[in-house]
C-alpha cells in the first residue's frame, strides 16, 4: 500500500478523535520514517513498509491517547521539544506567558529568573534562547520532568544558562539569590474537576492544584512576595480571575494585569510588587 493510500485508510479511524485526521496520520508516518513534510509530499506514491507499526499507533491514538506521547515530540514557540509520558504536554497558550516575560526581561540587564514547575522545560529553554544574558534556576518536584527539561536544554544549546534543582516551590532555593522574576505554569485545576479524556493520560500532579484549584497559585504569590522578587508571571484557570484579584489586595502591589488566551479565556497574570523600603 502506498503512503497516500495509508493516509486515506487510517485517517478514517481518527475522524471522531481529531478535526485533522489526515494530518495526524501524516505525523505518525513521518515519525516512523523520520522524514519531514516536504519529503512526504514528494514521495507519497511510494510503498509504505511500516503499516503494522502505523496501525498500532493509530489504534492507540483512537483511544484519545495524546499524539505527542506517541511521537515523543511537541511544537512550542516554533521549536520542537522532546516529550515524555510522565510530564505535562506543552500547550500553545503558554507561548503567551513567554511573550509577557520577554517584554519585561528585555528591559533588565543580566536578568535572573526562577521557574517553578519546569515540566518539559519549554518556558526556561525559550527564555534562555531569546534573552542573551539571562540566568535561570528551574525547579520541579518530578524527577522525570527535571531530566526531560535538561534534555531539551541540551538539545537547544542553552544548558549553560539554566540550573535545574529538585524543589517544592522555593524550599531548596537559597534566600541569597536576588531574582528579578518568578514565572510558573503551575497546577491550577480543582481536584474534583472532570478532565477531558485525552488529558486523563497526563500526570495528575501537574494538573490538579487543590480542592479549589488556586491553592498552589496563592502559595506561589505569597512566597514570591516574601522573597521580595519584583515580578511574578503565572498561568491560571479561566475562572480564577475574580478570587485572585481579591487575594492580590493582601499584598503591596505596584501594578498587575490579566491576559486572555487564544480562545479569549482569562489565562494568566503579571504582578509587579512594590519595592519594600
TrEMBL record:
Gene Ontology MF: a single term: peptide chain release factor N(5)-glutamine methyltransferase activity
A Pfam entry, by short name: MTS
High-level lineage: Bacteria, Pseudomonadati, Campylobacterota, Epsilonproteobacteria, Campylobacterales
UniProt keyword annotations, A-Z: Methyltransferase, S-adenosyl-L-methionine, Transferase
Domain Release factor glutamine methyltransferase N-terminal: 8-71
PANTHER family in the record: HEMK METHYLTRANSFERASE, MTRF1L RELEASE FACTOR GLUTAMINE METHYLTRANSFERASE
Protein name: peptide chain release factor N(5)-glutamine methyltransferase
Alphabetized NCBIfam families for the sequence: hemK_fam, RF_mod_PrmC
Chain coiled-coil ranges: none
Enzyme class: transferase
One GO-annotated biological process of the protein: methylation
Enzyme Commission (EC) number: 2.1.1.297
Reaction(s) this enzyme catalyzes, per UniProt: L-glutaminyl-[peptide chain release factor] + S-adenosyl-L-methionine = N(5)-methyl-L-glutaminyl-[peptide chain release factor] + S-adenosyl-L-homocysteine + H(+)
Residue ranges of domain Methyltransferase small in the record: 102-191
Database matches in Gene3D superfamilies: DNA helicase RuvA subunit, C-terminal domain, Vaccinia Virus protein VP39
Amino acid at each position: 500500500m502506498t503512503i497516500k493510500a495509508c493516509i486515506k485508510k487510517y485517517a478514517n479511524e481518527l475522524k471522531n478523535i481529531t478535526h485533522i485526521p489526515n494530518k495526524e496520520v501524516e505525523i505518525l508516518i513521518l515519525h516512523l520514517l523520520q522524514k519531514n513534510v516536504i519529503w512526504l509530499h514528494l514521495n507519497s506514491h511510494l510503498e509504505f513498509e511500516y503499516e503494522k507499526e502505523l496501525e498500532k499507533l493509530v489504534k492507540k491514538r483512537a483511544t484519545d491517547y495524546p499524539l505527542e506521547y506517541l511521537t515523543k515530540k511537541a511544537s512550542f514557540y516554533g521549536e520542537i521539544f522532546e516529550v515524555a509520558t510522565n510530564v505535562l504536554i506543552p500547550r500553545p497558550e503558554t507561548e503567551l506567558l513567554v511573550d509577557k516575560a520577554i517584554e519585561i526581561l528585555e528591559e533588565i540587564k543580566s536578568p535572573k529568573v526562577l521557574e517553578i514547575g519546569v515540566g518539559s522545560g519549554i518556558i526556561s529553554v525559550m527564555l534562555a534562547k531569546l534573552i542573551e544574558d539571562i540566568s535561570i534556576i528551574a525547579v520541579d518536584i518530578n524527577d522525570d520532568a527535571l531530566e526531560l527539561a535538561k534534555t531539551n536544554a541540551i538539545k537547544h544549546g542553552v544548558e549553560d544558562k539554566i540550573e535545574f534543582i529538585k524543589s517544592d516551590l522555593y524550599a531548596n532555593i537559597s534566600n541569597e539569590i536576588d531574582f528579578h522574576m518568578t514565572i510558573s505554569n503551575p497546577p491550577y485545576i480543582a481536584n474534583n474537576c472532570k478532565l477531558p479524556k485525552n488529558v486523563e493520560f497526563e500526570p495528575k500532579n501537574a494538573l490538579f492544584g487543590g480542592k479549589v484549584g488556586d491553592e498552589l497559585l496563592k502559595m506561589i504569590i505569597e512566597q514570591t512576595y516574601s522573597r521580595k522578587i519584583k515580578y511574578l508571571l503565572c498561568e491560571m484557570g479561566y475562572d480564577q480571575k475574580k478570587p485572585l484579584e481579591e487575594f492580590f489586595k493582601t499584598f503591596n502591589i505596584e501594578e498587575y494585569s490579566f491576559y486572555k488566551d487564544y480562545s479569549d479565556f482569562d489565562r494568566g497574570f503579571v504582578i509587579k510588587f512594590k519595592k519594600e523600603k
